Every structure is written in structure tokens, then in C-alpha cells.
């Protein structure tokens, strides 16, 4: 059987459509290609973005910064010494880009000038950490990416 050019074009178009449909079905049904948003409430966070920018500016203007230290007990978050621990209120958000189930947040409750994130909550790998706290009606926000 001889195939002319018209039949060849039809076969090529059907092959191309089949190829595209295979990838569309594979990408929509396979769990390895499932990617979630960073947050479910992205629109609400967008509305508060200017407040976040102001809080980051406040944090950058401090003489002493928050620092992070890996210890045997976990991740130690050291706050600047001039903050009194009774006045600080806020949250620490730990976001794991590779696995949504590992994300968590902790309220800031410190008796010294540091907060300890327990070792069992942290898995080795990359973490994005946001420390959002308020002291004397002034908001501060520290963001850091670290490998634990």
C-alpha cells in the first residue's frame, strides 16, 4: 500500500494530538506532578503585603538581628537582647517547599531571649522561616531560608 502526502499529513496530525493528549492526561492524574500553592489564602496575604514590607523594614533597622543556631535539641532562634521577653508576641512559621504536610507554625512564648523549635519537628533539608512578632506596638518580620 502506497501512502500519499495527504494521508501522511493526517497521520502526523493524529500522532501529534495523541502525543499531546498523553501528556495532558499524565500530568493531571499522576501525583508526582501535583504541586500546591504556597498558601490557600493567597489573596488575603496579598492585601496584607504592605504591612509585611513595613515589618521587614523595621526588622532591618534593628542594630541586633535575630539569628538561628542548630543545636542538639533543635533549632534555636535567638532574639535581640534589648527585647523583653514579656512584651514579645507573635508566631514562627516554618514552611517546607518540598512537602506541605511538614509545614507548621508556633506561637512565640519565651522565657529567655530565645525560642527553641524541637528537633523532632524538623526534617533535614531546606526550610523557609518567617518570624513575625510585635513589641511595643511595632511589628517586625524576619525571613530566612536555611538548610537544616
The largest pleated sheet is described as: 4 strands, antiparallel
Rg from Cα = 25 Å
The main sheet orders its strands as 4-3-6-7
Q: How many helices in DSSP terms?
A: 3
- Unreliable runs: none
InterPro entries: FixH
Keywords: Membrane, Transmembrane, Transmembrane helix
Protein name: Cytochrome C oxidase Cbb3
Keywords:
148 residues, alpha+beta, Immunoglobulin-like, three-stranded antiparallel sheet, 3 helices, 7 strands, Cytochrome C oxidase Cbb3, transmembrane helix, FixH
Structure notes:
By secondary structure, the protein is α+β, with helices and mostly antiparallel strands. The protein has helices at 5-29, 42-47, 49-60; strands spanning 67-70, 74-78, 89-95, 104-107, 114-118, 126-135, 138-147. The longest helix has 25 residues, at 5-29. The mean pLDDT is 83. It is built from three helices and seven strands.
Q: Mind sketching the topology for me?
A:
Blueprint: H1 5-29, H2 42-47, H3 49-60, E1 67-70, E2 74-78, E3 89-95, E4 104-107, E5 114-118, E6 126-135, E7 138-147
Antiparallel strand pairs: 1-2, 2-5, 3-4, 3-6, 6-7
Amino acid at each position: 500500500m502506497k501512502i500519499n502526502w495527504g494521508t501522511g499529513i493526517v497521520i502526523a496530525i493524529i500522532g501529534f494530538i495523541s502525543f499531546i493528549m498523553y501528556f495532558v492526561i499524565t500530568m493531571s492524574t499522576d501525583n508526582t506532578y501535583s504541586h500546591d500553592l504556597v498558601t490557600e489564602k493567597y489573596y488575603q496575604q496579598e492585601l496584607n503585603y504592605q504591612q509585611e514590607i513595613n515589618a521587614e523594614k523595621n526588622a532591618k533597622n534593628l542594630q541586633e538581628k535575630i539569628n538561628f543556631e542548630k543545636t542538639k535539641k533543635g533549632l534555636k532562634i535567638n532574639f535581640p537582647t534589648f527585647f523583653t521577653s514579656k512584651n514579645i508576641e507573635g508566631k514562627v512559621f516554618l514552611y517546607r517547599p518540598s512537602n506541605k504536610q511538614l509545614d507548621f507554625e508556633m506561637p512565640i512564648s519565651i522565657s529567655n531571649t530565645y525560642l527553641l523549635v524541637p528537633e523532632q519537628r524538623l526534617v533535614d533539608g531546606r526550610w523557609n522561616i518567617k518570624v513575625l512578632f510585635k513589641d511595643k506596638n511595632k511589628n517586625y518580620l524576619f525571613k530566612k531560608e536555611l538548610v537544616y
